[in-house]
Amino acid sequence: MLTSTPVSLWLGAAGYCTHPEVLTIRGGTLRPVAFPAGFACIRHPKHGIILFDTGYSSRFFTETATLPQAAYRYITPVVYEEQDSAADQLGRMEIDAADVQYVILSHFHGDHIAAVQDFPNSRFIYLAESYEAVRKLGTLRAVKAGFLSGLLPEDWIERSLPFYRKDLIHPSTSGQLRAVERKLSVSSKSSASGEWSVSREAYGPQHDLFGDGSLFAIELSGHAEGMIGLLLSTSSHDYLLCADTVWSSRALRENRRPHPLAGIIMSDRREYVRSMDRLREWSSTNPELRIVPSHCREVLAEWGGRWLT
Asked: InterPro entries, per this entry (predicted)?
């Protein structure tokens, strides 16, 4: 396992938006395709219920009722009903929204933060540079950046627990262990066990969010400035919640980048390519790693809607 403290994981989606497929994957069709607004629920042995992103909520429609914010809704048409909300889905699992201790935000696009106000007791964890990139934008630039400030609660700052790029460091291991892990990373497969074995060090600078070896944030900028993914392990599998580094498992598997027009909404196209290349490298080095894009129907069909332990 990549982490020392296993958790349980539940994957779901709160509504979806539609795009022509060709915008999200080279060679795709012109027909509109549904992209679920994914979120993850994590059951931590000490900190209880934690969310990674939130998907849509009805507030998205309130915030995009008039121009210029309405352009967001027109460019990415959204299909959503109240029973789709993350809070309602948790309720059906007998988890009260008030019991969610933390919400980890990958980045500040509306489809990832729209429901943060549904969790009144949560603290918000995010890379500070991600919020700094959008918080002072004028209305038009904020819409282009996919940020709707009205989605955040009034006590946002008081409830925030940001970390910084300087907090992202390589895993600290002893010199001997680092040498062994590097050898495993290069050889990829252990001849003795026949199992893939890759150390966390292979994933570059990380931040141990709770200091207990359970959840590790990794910066994956490009789609949005300061976007983070989350490395975690259940007792049986390793997962990387990669947010919008790719929009589908197919794009990753076939190395098919988005259409150049998709670059309009990106913070840095070159950085996006670098992050996607890193994701492909990790997938190749560790085929057992379960990579979870936020908007992938294939992932939800395979792993969604049940507790992964």
From this structure: MBL_superfamily_lactonases, Metallo-B-lactamas, RibonucZ/Hydroxyglut_hydro
